[in-house]
Amino acid sequence: MTRGQAGAEPARKRASQARSLMTKQALITATIECLWERGYAGATIAEISRKADVTHGAHLHHFGTREELIAAAVDALFQRMIGEFELRFSKLPSDIAARTEAALDHFRDLAIGQLFGVVGELLNAARTNESMAAQMRGYGASQRMQQRQMYIKIFGAAAVEDPQVFYWLDTTFAVYLRGLSVLQATRTPKEIEEQWQRWKQFVLPQITARLTLIGADMPSG
């Protein structure tokens, strides 16, 4: 092998790795779009491959099964959500009441976006698809851990360790807003907003009163 050939080999390897990464990202992006636009049943490998502009079997090299590809796409969507949260977290006010209201509105924005809609589709599919159910159990455990870290970054570890604070935060994010996301299929945006405002008017004083009572120190951005 000549010196030129030896030097070209790492360059070819880097180019191959770059193409592989681009293909993987294209598959993930296309999967998210298919799940959002067509639901689980419509997110077929053929449709995902067409949208990603890759060969039909490309997913096998990067993800193996359709369920593994879908789980990876949902995780990527959740990571994107966390990135958006990190940006907004740095701008939250330090006042307890204002900070809590801003955090609740941020939770609402997350819930009516792609993430909860896509996850809802997959949870329905998991009822009758054991392979999908296994993927969602792994995703669920990771999501719960990251949700808790999100609460901690907003309100501090001591506040989140308080059972009442954690109960109201998790009831809002993981229960009420998940239900509100489902209702988007049958309610107008105005009705969804009215539902949210009624819940916020109820839960905001509960959280702020408890945070004040336990003397929670709000983390700095």
Number of strands: 0
Structural class: mainly alpha
User: How many domain regions?
Assistant: 2
Report helical residue fraction: over 70%
| Uncertain ranges | none
What is the typical, i.e. mean, pLDDT? 84
Radius of gyration: 21 Å
Shape: globular
Pfam family, one: TetR_N
Protein name: TetR/AcrR family transcriptional regulator
DNA-binding region: 44-63
GO molecular function: DNA-binding transcription factor activity; transcription cis-regulatory region binding
Give the gist of this structure.
By secondary structure, the chain is mostly helical. It is 83% helix and 0% strand.
Overview of the molecule:
- The chain is an all-alpha fold.
- The chain has 10 helices and no strands.
- It has 2 domains: 1-64, Orthogonal Bundle (Arc Repressor Mutant, subunit A); 66-221.
- It holds the Pfam family TetR_N.
- Residues 44-63 bind DNA.
- This is TetR/AcrR family transcriptional regulator.
